[in-house]
Amino acid sequence: DVKVTQSSRYLVKRTGEKVFLECVQDMDHENMFWYRQDPGLGLRLIYFSYDVKMKEKGDIPEGYSVSREKKERFSLILESASTNQTSMYLCASSGNWGTQYFGPGTRLTVL
Amino acid sequence: GNSVTQMEGPVTLSEEAFLTINCTYTATGYPSLFWYVQYPGEGLQLLLKATKADDKGSNKGFEATYRKETTSFHLEKGSVQVSDSAVYFCALSESQAGGGADGLTFGKGTHLIIQP
């Protein structure tokens, strides 16, 4: 079974803090994705990566950056967290011709 | 750009009722279509998919048919159970084989509540 794990289920941070959300997949997938999920807005793509050290902006990249130093790990970085980044963050991975598999999500609260 | 529209709910049904959740899409090319399900406190799981027109995806008693002429991918189940209570997301991908190197475009999700 594909396994996508995220470093925390719940996280509380203060405005202005630097926040790292980590995602690891164990299926040697080429592609990895970060989404945020908000009530009434569904899921929106923040960034994705199709190879190590490669990244592409999604629909809402502002305020975020990403890092992919190893194939299995994709990190989402909030350089200076703000209250409007309070959300559920979902990581996903896929092979080049495969379905996306999602992690359990990290619920981030920024105070 | 691409977009997915689905009824938001909540949709409340009694156990054993027939379920339809409507989903329509706009896309520039020939997308692949998906239904994902999210149970309380969990991430999204793929429920079913279809990659070309007239394909029918099915899983766990759920079905959806890719209708190019009406740009729709409605989710149906003949007899729902309490355990089907969840949020259901319709999504599309322009990647030819579906959900590969491109991100998915999601609808806003439909909250389904099944009462015993």
Unreliable segments of chain A (pLDDT under 50, ≥5 consecutive)? none
Record field, number of beta strands of chain B: 12
- Percent of residues in beta strands of chain B: over 45%
User: How many helices of chain B?
Assistant: 0
Task: Please mark out the parts of chain B with pLDDT under 50 across 5 or more consecutive residues, or reply none.
Answer: none
Radius of gyration of chain B using CA atoms only = 14 Å
Which structural class should the secondary elements of chain B be placed in? mainly beta
Q: What is the helix content of chain A? A: under 10%
Can you give the mean pLDDT of chain A?
92
**Pair of chains with the largest interface and how many residues each contributes:** A-B, 29 and 26 residues
Describe the global form of chain A: globular
Largest sheet of chain A: 7 strands, mixed
Shape of chain B: globular
Largest sheet of chain B: 6 strands, mixed
Q: What percentage of the residues of chain A does DSSP assign to strands (E)?
A: over 45%
N to C succession of SSEs of chain B = EEEEEEEEEEEE
Distance from first to last alpha carbon of chain B: 41 Å
In percent, how helical is the residue content of chain B?
under 10%
Determine the structural class of chain A based on helices, strands and strand pairing.
Answer: mainly beta
- What Rg of chain A is obtained from the alpha carbons, in whole angstroms? 13 Å
Number of strands of chain A: 11
